[in-house]
Specification:
The chain is of the alpha+beta class and 102 residues long. The chain has one domain: Cupredoxins -  blue copper proteins (Immunoglobulin-like, Sandwich), CATH 2.60.40.420. The protein has helices at 18-23, 48-53, and strands spanning 3-5, 32-34, 43-46, 61-63, 68-70, 75-79, 91-95. It starts with a strand and ends in a 7-residue tail after the last strand. The model has no long low-confidence stretch (mean pLDDT 95).
């Protein structure tokens, strides 16, 4: 299984196009992603509706910086939990295929 750093060298920050970033990689179930960020950001795993609406009040899970999370679902949605950040584009949807990328 592969490990991906969200945003590559840019990490988890404002002013990064995470839609473009996610489109570059063939994510598969069992792969892992890691978010690297400072204290001025956070990562919330959310459902699809909360992803679209940038709702930070109903997270499935809150993630720590540098801690890898395994893609266990076909659709995986992450947003920054700091008010105003998700709306400016600090969010990423990661779609995992059934086939392994390794």
């Amino acid at each position: 299984a592969a490990l991906y750093k969200v945003g590559d060298n840019l990490g988890w920050n404002l002013n990064v196009n995470y839609t473009q970033w996610a489109a570059k990689y063939p994510f598969a179930l069992g792969d892992s992603v890691v978010f690297v960020f400072s204290g001025s950001h956070s990562v919330l795993m959310v459902n699809e509706i909360d992803y679209v609406l940038c709702n930070i009040h109903n997270p499935v899970q809150s993630l720590l910086s540098g801690r890898a999370i395994t893609l266990a679902a076909r659709k995986n949605f992450f947003i920054c939990g700091i008010p105003g950040h998700c709306i400016t584009g600090m969010k990423v949807a990661i779609y995992a295929s059934v086939a392994s990328s390794s």
